[in-house]
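Q: Give me a backbone?
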Amino acid sequence: MTLAEELKWRGLIQDTTLNKINLFNQKDWKLYIGFDATAPSQTIGNLAAMMTVLVFLRHNHQAVILAGGATSLIGDPGGKEQERSLQDKQVVEQNIAKANQQFRQVFKNFDQQVTYTNNLNWFEDFKLLDFLRDVGKHFSMTPLIQRDFIASRLGEGGSGISYAEFSYTLLQGYDYLKLFEDYQCNLQIGGSDQWGNCLSGVELIRRKHQAAVDILTLPLIINQATGKKFGKSEEQTIWLDDSMTHASDFYQFLLNTADEDVINYLKIFSQLTKPEIDDLADKHQRNPALRLPHIKLAEELTSLVHNQKLKTCQLFSQLAFKGQSNFETSDIQAILEAELDNQVINFRQPSSQIDQTASLTALYDELINKIPICQSRSQLKEFYDNQALKIILLNDFSNQPIKGHKYTLNEFYVKKLWLEHSNSLGIIVIGKNTIRVLQFD
Protein backbone atom coordinates (compact mmCIF):
# COMPACT_ATOMS: atom_id res chain seq x y z
CA MET A 1 0.00 0.00 0.00
CA THR A 2 1.43 3.39 -0.98
CA LEU A 3 1.53 6.35 1.40
CA ALA A 4 -1.41 8.01 -0.37
CA GLU A 5 -3.43 4.79 -0.31
CA GLU A 6 -2.77 4.27 3.39
CA LEU A 7 -3.66 7.85 4.34
CA LYS A 8 -6.92 7.57 2.40
CA TRP A 9 -7.80 4.10 3.77
CA ARG A 10 -7.15 5.16 7.36
CA GLY A 11 -9.34 8.23 6.87
CA LEU A 12 -6.56 10.71 7.70
CA ILE A 13 -7.23 13.30 4.98
CA GLN A 14 -9.61 16.21 5.55
CA ASP A 15 -8.01 18.91 3.37
CA THR A 16 -4.69 19.29 1.60
CA THR A 17 -2.99 21.80 -0.65
CA LEU A 18 -1.97 18.98 -2.98
CA ASN A 19 -4.08 18.88 -6.14
CA LYS A 20 -4.10 15.09 -6.18
CA ILE A 21 -3.70 12.71 -3.27
CA ASN A 22 -1.30 10.56 -5.28
CA LEU A 23 1.23 13.40 -5.06
CA PHE A 24 1.92 12.24 -1.49
CA ASN A 25 3.84 9.37 -3.14
CA GLN A 26 6.06 11.63 -5.24
CA LYS A 27 8.04 13.65 -2.70
CA ASP A 28 10.45 13.13 0.15
CA TRP A 29 8.51 14.64 3.03
CA LYS A 30 9.87 16.34 6.08
CA LEU A 31 6.67 17.10 7.92
CA TYR A 32 6.03 18.87 11.16
CA ILE A 33 3.33 18.90 13.79
CA GLY A 34 3.15 21.47 16.55
CA PHE A 35 1.68 20.86 19.97
CA ASP A 36 0.11 23.14 22.53
CA ALA A 37 1.70 23.02 25.99
CA THR A 38 -0.96 24.77 28.06
CA ALA A 39 -1.93 21.48 29.76
CA PRO A 40 0.37 19.15 31.74
CA SER A 41 -0.28 16.27 29.34
CA GLN A 42 -1.39 15.50 25.81
CA THR A 43 -4.79 13.81 25.48
CA ILE A 44 -5.90 10.67 23.71
CA GLY A 45 -7.36 12.98 21.03
CA ASN A 46 -3.83 14.19 20.21
CA LEU A 47 -2.94 10.63 19.20
CA ALA A 48 -4.61 11.09 15.80
CA ALA A 49 -1.85 13.47 14.69
CA MET A 50 0.82 11.24 16.23
CA MET A 51 -0.51 8.18 14.41
CA THR A 52 -0.55 10.14 11.14
CA VAL A 53 3.11 10.97 11.69
CA LEU A 54 3.77 7.27 12.26
CA VAL A 55 2.26 6.49 8.86
CA PHE A 56 4.78 8.86 7.22
CA LEU A 57 7.64 7.44 9.30
CA ARG A 58 6.80 3.88 8.27
CA HIS A 59 7.06 5.08 4.66
CA ASN A 60 10.59 6.37 5.41
CA HIS A 61 9.86 10.09 5.65
CA GLN A 62 11.07 12.41 8.42
CA ALA A 63 9.30 14.50 11.06
CA VAL A 64 9.88 17.51 13.29
CA ILE A 65 7.91 17.77 16.53
CA LEU A 66 7.48 21.43 17.43
CA ALA A 67 6.79 22.41 21.03
CA GLY A 68 4.75 25.60 21.35
CA GLY A 69 6.98 27.10 24.01
CA ALA A 70 6.18 30.62 22.75
CA THR A 71 2.69 30.20 21.32
CA SER A 72 1.48 28.43 24.47
CA LEU A 73 2.28 31.60 26.39
CA ILE A 74 -0.44 33.29 24.31
CA GLY A 75 -2.88 30.51 23.48
CA ASP A 76 -4.56 29.44 20.25
CA PRO A 77 -7.94 31.18 19.91
CA GLY A 78 -9.21 28.50 17.53
CA GLY A 79 -12.33 26.78 18.85
CA LYS A 80 -12.47 29.01 21.93
CA GLU A 81 -15.35 31.36 22.68
CA GLN A 82 -13.44 33.15 25.42
CA GLU A 83 -9.92 34.48 25.84
CA ARG A 84 -7.54 31.88 27.25
CA SER A 85 -5.86 32.44 30.60
CA LEU A 86 -2.18 33.22 30.23
CA GLN A 87 0.20 30.47 31.30
CA ASP A 88 3.32 30.88 33.43
CA LYS A 89 6.53 30.32 31.45
CA GLN A 90 7.90 27.78 33.94
CA VAL A 91 4.64 25.79 33.81
CA VAL A 92 4.79 25.72 30.01
CA GLU A 93 8.39 24.46 30.14
CA GLN A 94 7.36 21.66 32.50
CA ASN A 95 4.44 20.76 30.24
CA ILE A 96 6.74 20.60 27.22
CA ALA A 97 9.12 18.23 29.00
CA LYS A 98 6.23 15.89 29.84
CA ALA A 99 4.75 16.09 26.35
CA ASN A 100 8.10 15.35 24.70
CA GLN A 101 8.34 12.18 26.80
CA GLN A 102 4.94 11.13 25.47
CA PHE A 103 5.94 11.83 21.86
CA ARG A 104 9.21 9.94 22.32
CA GLN A 105 7.29 6.95 23.70
CA VAL A 106 5.02 6.86 20.64
CA PHE A 107 7.90 7.36 18.17
CA LYS A 108 10.41 5.16 20.01
CA ASN A 109 10.97 2.87 17.01
CA PHE A 110 11.80 5.80 14.71
CA ASP A 111 14.23 7.87 16.80
CA GLN A 112 16.55 8.55 13.86
CA GLN A 113 13.74 10.02 11.77
CA VAL A 114 12.32 12.44 14.35
CA THR A 115 13.68 15.82 15.49
CA TYR A 116 12.37 17.84 18.44
CA THR A 117 12.48 21.62 18.71
CA ASN A 118 10.72 24.55 20.42
CA ASN A 119 9.43 27.76 18.87
CA LEU A 120 10.59 29.71 21.92
CA ASN A 121 14.06 29.27 20.41
CA TRP A 122 13.29 31.85 17.71
CA PHE A 123 10.58 33.95 19.35
CA GLU A 124 12.17 34.65 22.73
CA ASP A 125 14.56 37.33 21.41
CA PHE A 126 12.53 38.40 18.39
CA LYS A 127 12.16 42.19 18.54
CA LEU A 128 8.69 43.61 17.92
CA LEU A 129 9.76 45.98 15.15
CA ASP A 130 11.58 43.17 13.36
CA PHE A 131 8.51 40.93 13.64
CA LEU A 132 6.22 43.63 12.22
CA ARG A 133 8.60 44.34 9.34
CA ASP A 134 9.57 40.72 8.53
CA VAL A 135 6.25 38.99 9.19
CA GLY A 136 3.36 41.39 9.77
CA LYS A 137 3.96 43.27 6.52
CA HIS A 138 3.15 40.14 4.52
CA PHE A 139 -0.38 39.71 5.93
CA SER A 140 -3.50 41.62 4.91
CA MET A 141 -6.05 42.34 7.65
CA THR A 142 -9.08 41.58 5.47
CA PRO A 143 -8.59 37.80 5.07
CA LEU A 144 -7.43 37.50 8.67
CA ILE A 145 -10.63 38.94 10.17
CA GLN A 146 -12.70 36.76 7.83
CA ARG A 147 -11.30 33.54 9.31
CA ASP A 148 -13.99 31.65 11.18
CA PHE A 149 -12.39 31.59 14.62
CA ILE A 150 -11.69 35.34 14.51
CA ALA A 151 -14.97 36.34 12.87
CA SER A 152 -16.98 34.45 15.50
CA ARG A 153 -15.23 36.34 18.28
CA LEU A 154 -15.62 39.72 16.58
CA GLY A 155 -19.19 39.26 15.37
CA GLU A 156 -22.47 39.90 17.16
CA GLY A 157 -22.56 38.00 20.43
CA GLY A 158 -18.83 37.31 20.32
CA SER A 159 -16.63 37.93 23.34
CA GLY A 160 -14.02 39.90 21.39
CA ILE A 161 -10.39 38.98 20.84
CA SER A 162 -7.18 40.49 22.15
CA TYR A 163 -4.36 41.56 19.84
CA ALA A 164 -2.25 38.78 21.41
CA GLU A 165 -4.63 36.01 20.32
CA PHE A 166 -5.35 37.77 17.01
CA SER A 167 -1.61 37.58 16.28
CA TYR A 168 -1.46 33.83 16.94
CA THR A 169 -1.90 32.93 13.26
CA LEU A 170 1.12 35.10 12.33
CA LEU A 171 3.22 33.31 14.93
CA GLN A 172 2.21 29.92 13.56
CA GLY A 173 2.91 31.11 10.04
CA TYR A 174 6.40 32.16 11.10
CA ASP A 175 6.91 28.72 12.68
CA TYR A 176 6.44 27.11 9.28
CA LEU A 177 8.84 29.63 7.72
CA LYS A 178 11.58 28.90 10.29
CA LEU A 179 11.10 25.14 9.97
CA PHE A 180 11.28 25.45 6.18
CA GLU A 181 14.48 27.52 6.41
CA ASP A 182 16.25 25.63 9.21
CA TYR A 183 14.91 22.06 8.88
CA GLN A 184 13.71 21.93 5.24
CA CYS A 185 10.14 21.10 6.33
CA ASN A 186 7.74 20.95 3.39
CA LEU A 187 4.52 19.63 4.96
CA GLN A 188 2.54 20.75 7.99
CA ILE A 189 0.02 18.39 9.60
CA GLY A 190 -2.73 19.85 11.76
CA GLY A 191 -6.29 19.43 12.92
CA SER A 192 -9.21 20.42 10.73
CA ASP A 193 -9.59 23.64 12.75
CA GLN A 194 -6.01 24.66 11.90
CA TRP A 195 -6.44 25.10 8.14
CA GLY A 196 -6.37 28.91 8.31
CA ASN A 197 -3.32 29.00 10.57
CA CYS A 198 -1.52 26.53 8.31
CA LEU A 199 -2.24 28.68 5.25
CA SER A 200 -0.47 31.57 6.99
CA GLY A 201 2.78 29.61 6.79
CA VAL A 202 2.25 28.55 3.18
CA GLU A 203 1.62 32.16 2.16
CA LEU A 204 4.56 33.53 4.15
CA ILE A 205 6.99 31.02 2.59
CA ARG A 206 5.67 31.81 -0.87
CA ARG A 207 6.19 35.53 -0.33
CA LYS A 208 9.62 35.26 1.30
CA HIS A 209 11.15 32.46 -0.79
CA GLN A 210 8.88 32.00 -3.81
CA ALA A 211 8.61 28.36 -2.73
CA ALA A 212 5.64 26.01 -2.48
CA VAL A 213 5.02 23.94 0.63
CA ASP A 214 2.01 21.89 1.61
CA ILE A 215 -0.58 21.20 4.30
CA LEU A 216 -2.49 18.12 5.42
CA THR A 217 -5.32 18.58 7.90
CA LEU A 218 -7.00 15.68 9.67
CA PRO A 219 -10.74 15.08 10.05
CA LEU A 220 -12.41 15.79 13.37
CA ILE A 221 -12.96 12.41 15.02
CA ILE A 222 -16.48 12.08 16.37
CA ASN A 223 -17.85 9.37 18.62
CA GLN A 224 -20.75 8.15 16.49
CA ALA A 225 -22.63 6.82 19.52
CA THR A 226 -22.60 10.11 21.45
CA GLY A 227 -21.94 12.75 18.82
CA LYS A 228 -19.11 14.10 20.98
CA LYS A 229 -15.51 14.74 20.02
CA PHE A 230 -13.33 11.67 20.54
CA GLY A 231 -11.18 11.75 23.66
CA LYS A 232 -13.74 12.66 26.30
CA SER A 233 -15.42 10.20 28.60
CA GLU A 234 -18.62 11.14 30.39
CA GLU A 235 -16.61 11.88 33.50
CA GLN A 236 -13.28 13.30 32.36
CA THR A 237 -10.72 14.00 29.68
CA ILE A 238 -8.57 10.98 28.83
CA TRP A 239 -4.94 12.07 29.27
CA LEU A 240 -1.80 10.24 28.17
CA ASP A 241 -0.09 10.87 31.53
CA ASP A 242 -0.67 7.90 33.84
CA SER A 243 -0.78 10.18 36.88
CA MET A 244 -3.73 12.08 35.36
CA THR A 245 -5.58 9.19 33.73
CA HIS A 246 -4.64 5.81 35.18
CA ALA A 247 -3.55 3.32 32.52
CA SER A 248 -6.48 1.08 33.51
CA ASP A 249 -8.96 3.92 32.87
CA PHE A 250 -7.27 4.54 29.50
CA TYR A 251 -7.61 0.83 28.64
CA GLN A 252 -11.24 0.64 29.77
CA PHE A 253 -12.16 3.78 27.82
CA LEU A 254 -10.93 2.10 24.62
CA LEU A 255 -12.42 -1.26 25.54
CA ASN A 256 -15.84 0.40 25.79
CA THR A 257 -15.68 1.89 22.30
CA ALA A 258 -19.04 1.66 20.53
CA ASP A 259 -19.41 -1.03 17.88
CA GLU A 260 -20.05 1.55 15.17
CA ASP A 261 -16.73 3.29 15.93
CA VAL A 262 -14.29 0.50 16.71
CA ILE A 263 -13.14 -0.44 13.19
CA ASN A 264 -12.69 3.22 12.25
CA TYR A 265 -10.66 3.77 15.43
CA LEU A 266 -8.47 0.77 14.64
CA LYS A 267 -7.64 2.34 11.27
CA ILE A 268 -6.79 5.70 12.81
CA PHE A 269 -5.19 4.75 16.12
CA SER A 270 -3.44 1.44 15.48
CA GLN A 271 -0.62 0.30 13.24
CA LEU A 272 -2.47 -2.85 12.21
CA THR A 273 -2.54 -3.59 8.49
CA LYS A 274 -5.65 -3.64 6.31
CA PRO A 275 -5.80 -7.49 6.23
CA GLU A 276 -5.52 -7.59 10.04
CA ILE A 277 -8.29 -5.04 10.55
CA ASP A 278 -10.50 -6.65 7.89
CA ASP A 279 -10.08 -9.98 9.69
CA LEU A 280 -11.12 -8.42 13.02
CA ALA A 281 -14.14 -6.80 11.36
CA ASP A 282 -15.19 -10.15 9.87
CA LYS A 283 -14.82 -11.97 13.21
CA HIS A 284 -16.77 -9.24 14.98
CA GLN A 285 -19.60 -9.48 12.49
CA ARG A 286 -19.80 -13.26 13.04
CA ASN A 287 -19.53 -13.10 16.84
CA PRO A 288 -19.90 -9.55 18.24
CA ALA A 289 -20.12 -10.81 21.84
CA LEU A 290 -16.39 -11.60 21.81
CA ARG A 291 -15.60 -7.90 21.18
CA LEU A 292 -12.30 -8.83 19.56
CA PRO A 293 -11.76 -5.47 17.79
CA HIS A 294 -12.39 -3.61 21.05
CA ILE A 295 -9.86 -5.72 22.93
CA LYS A 296 -7.30 -5.27 20.16
CA LEU A 297 -7.82 -1.49 20.10
CA ALA A 298 -7.33 -1.25 23.87
CA GLU A 299 -4.25 -3.49 23.77
CA GLU A 300 -2.61 -1.69 20.81
CA LEU A 301 -2.97 1.83 22.21
CA THR A 302 -2.22 0.94 25.82
CA SER A 303 0.94 -0.83 24.71
CA LEU A 304 1.94 2.15 22.56
CA VAL A 305 1.31 4.81 25.22
CA HIS A 306 1.82 3.00 28.52
CA ASN A 307 4.07 0.12 27.45
CA GLN A 308 4.69 -1.92 30.65
CA LYS A 309 1.21 -1.13 32.02
CA LEU A 310 -0.66 -3.30 29.52
CA LYS A 311 -0.44 -6.43 31.69
CA THR A 312 -1.81 -4.48 34.66
CA CYS A 313 -4.78 -3.32 32.60
CA GLN A 314 -5.47 -6.81 31.25
CA LEU A 315 -5.29 -8.33 34.72
CA PHE A 316 -7.59 -5.71 36.22
CA SER A 317 -10.12 -6.21 33.45
CA GLN A 318 -10.08 -10.00 33.70
CA LEU A 319 -10.55 -10.01 37.45
CA ALA A 320 -13.17 -7.26 37.51
CA PHE A 321 -15.40 -8.56 34.73
CA LYS A 322 -14.60 -12.26 34.32
CA GLY A 323 -13.83 -13.11 37.94
CA GLN A 324 -10.64 -14.96 37.04
CA SER A 325 -7.31 -14.55 35.28
CA ASN A 326 -5.00 -16.75 33.24
CA PHE A 327 -1.89 -14.82 34.32
CA GLU A 328 0.90 -16.72 36.02
CA THR A 329 1.01 -16.43 39.81
CA SER A 330 4.34 -14.63 39.79
CA ASP A 331 3.03 -12.09 37.26
CA ILE A 332 -0.06 -11.35 39.34
CA GLN A 333 1.95 -10.85 42.50
CA ALA A 334 4.44 -8.60 40.67
CA ILE A 335 1.66 -6.50 39.10
CA LEU A 336 -0.19 -5.99 42.36
CA GLU A 337 2.99 -5.12 44.22
CA ALA A 338 4.01 -2.62 41.52
CA GLU A 339 0.61 -0.94 41.80
CA LEU A 340 1.12 -0.34 45.55
CA ASP A 341 3.06 2.79 44.55
CA ASN A 342 0.45 3.94 42.01
CA GLN A 343 -2.94 5.06 43.30
CA VAL A 344 -3.42 2.05 45.59
CA ILE A 345 -6.60 2.40 47.62
CA ASN A 346 -6.06 1.81 51.33
CA PHE A 347 -9.15 0.47 53.11
CA ARG A 348 -8.42 1.42 56.70
CA GLN A 349 -10.33 0.45 59.80
CA PRO A 350 -10.40 3.69 61.82
CA SER A 351 -10.77 2.03 65.21
CA SER A 352 -10.40 -1.29 66.96
CA GLN A 353 -14.14 -1.82 66.66
CA ILE A 354 -15.38 -2.65 63.19
CA ASP A 355 -17.68 0.24 62.41
CA GLN A 356 -19.42 0.24 59.03
CA THR A 357 -20.04 3.98 58.76
CA ALA A 358 -16.55 4.97 59.81
CA SER A 359 -14.99 2.39 57.48
CA LEU A 360 -17.02 3.55 54.48
CA THR A 361 -16.36 7.23 55.21
CA ALA A 362 -12.63 6.52 55.33
CA LEU A 363 -12.89 4.59 52.04
CA TYR A 364 -14.87 7.38 50.37
CA ASP A 365 -12.27 9.97 51.40
CA GLU A 366 -9.48 7.75 50.08
CA LEU A 367 -11.25 7.39 46.71
CA ILE A 368 -11.96 11.14 46.45
CA ASN A 369 -8.33 11.90 47.19
CA LYS A 370 -6.91 9.50 44.60
CA ILE A 371 -9.43 9.03 41.78
CA PRO A 372 -10.57 12.02 39.69
CA ILE A 373 -14.06 10.73 38.88
CA CYS A 374 -14.83 10.30 42.58
CA GLN A 375 -16.08 13.78 43.39
CA SER A 376 -17.89 13.55 46.72
CA ARG A 377 -19.07 11.32 49.54
CA SER A 378 -22.65 11.70 48.33
CA GLN A 379 -21.68 10.44 44.87
CA LEU A 380 -19.92 7.42 46.35
CA LYS A 381 -22.82 6.81 48.73
CA GLU A 382 -25.01 6.63 45.64
CA PHE A 383 -22.63 4.08 44.11
CA TYR A 384 -22.83 2.13 47.37
CA ASP A 385 -26.63 2.27 47.48
CA ASN A 386 -26.82 1.14 43.84
CA GLN A 387 -24.42 -1.76 44.46
CA ALA A 388 -21.80 -0.16 42.19
CA LEU A 389 -18.87 -0.52 44.61
CA LYS A 390 -17.35 -3.98 44.36
CA ILE A 391 -14.30 -5.65 45.86
CA ILE A 392 -12.59 -8.68 44.33
CA LEU A 393 -10.39 -10.67 46.69
CA LEU A 394 -8.00 -13.23 45.21
CA ASN A 395 -7.44 -16.80 46.27
CA ASP A 396 -4.12 -17.98 47.65
CA PHE A 397 -2.53 -18.29 44.17
CA SER A 398 -2.17 -22.05 44.68
CA ASN A 399 -4.12 -23.08 41.59
CA GLN A 400 -4.58 -21.79 38.06
CA PRO A 401 -6.54 -20.03 36.76
CA ILE A 402 -6.56 -17.44 39.52
CA LYS A 403 -10.11 -16.80 40.67
CA GLY A 404 -11.50 -13.72 42.31
CA HIS A 405 -14.19 -13.66 44.97
CA LYS A 406 -16.45 -10.70 44.25
CA TYR A 407 -18.24 -8.82 47.01
CA THR A 408 -20.71 -6.02 46.42
CA LEU A 409 -20.15 -3.65 49.31
CA ASN A 410 -22.97 -3.61 51.81
CA GLU A 411 -23.19 -3.59 55.60
CA PHE A 412 -22.68 -7.35 55.94
CA TYR A 413 -19.63 -7.49 53.69
CA VAL A 414 -17.96 -4.43 55.17
CA LYS A 415 -17.84 -6.32 58.45
CA LYS A 416 -17.08 -9.71 56.91
CA LEU A 417 -14.18 -8.40 54.83
CA TRP A 418 -12.57 -6.83 57.87
CA LEU A 419 -12.99 -9.93 60.00
CA GLU A 420 -11.65 -12.37 57.40
CA HIS A 421 -9.33 -10.47 55.08
CA SER A 422 -7.34 -7.98 57.10
CA ASN A 423 -3.96 -7.17 55.48
CA SER A 424 -5.11 -8.64 52.15
CA LEU A 425 -4.76 -7.29 48.62
CA GLY A 426 -7.62 -7.13 46.18
CA ILE A 427 -9.26 -5.10 43.43
CA ILE A 428 -11.91 -2.44 43.89
CA VAL A 429 -14.32 -1.57 41.06
CA ILE A 430 -15.98 1.85 41.23
CA GLY A 431 -18.96 2.31 38.96
CA LYS A 432 -18.67 0.48 35.64
CA ASN A 433 -15.05 0.87 34.60
CA THR A 434 -12.73 2.30 37.27
CA ILE A 435 -10.49 -0.38 38.78
CA ARG A 436 -7.68 -0.06 41.33
CA VAL A 437 -5.67 -2.22 43.70
CA LEU A 438 -7.19 -2.29 47.18
CA GLN A 439 -5.15 -2.91 50.31
CA PHE A 440 -6.67 -3.65 53.69
CA ASP A 441 -4.68 -1.84 56.38
Remarks:
- Residues 263 and 281 are 7 Å apart (CA to CA).
- The chain is about 45% helix and 15% strand.
- The longest helix spans residues 89-106.
